[in-house]
Amino acid sequence: MTNKIIQAGVDTDLPPVKAARSIHESNKIGPIVFFTPELGRWSTVGGLGVMVDELSVGIAKLGQEVIVISPYYERNRKGKTGYLAQDPAPGGINYVDTITVDLGGKVQVGVHEGVVDGVKVVFLHEASIFPAPYPDGQPSFTV
What is the pTM of this model? Predict the structure, then answer.
């Protein structure tokens, strides 16, 4: 409700608009971060990816800052590679950096970022760690 009042009085300093801005800002709880193995159109294989996608967008529409971190799998569920480069998100989802992670040995992980429906999405890419949403292989490797 406060967001609608703010939008309606965007260029005014009327007391109701000022009060709505104050209430709206004081209700922000800081960045909300989701870590998920599945996310929306990129890697959904079950209901989890849809749920995280819809929940994060809904929370962002309420005015909260939302960040979702997910693997950028080497192959998506259709077996395609390089699918982030063709993503239709405004501004795209772009490679931004490589980080080094210690997983019992140093591993280089690519970081890709973009904003989709008001949600900052961050994808971590390393083919040997994230080959596919449901990787092939022995159970010990999959786990």
Answer: 0.78
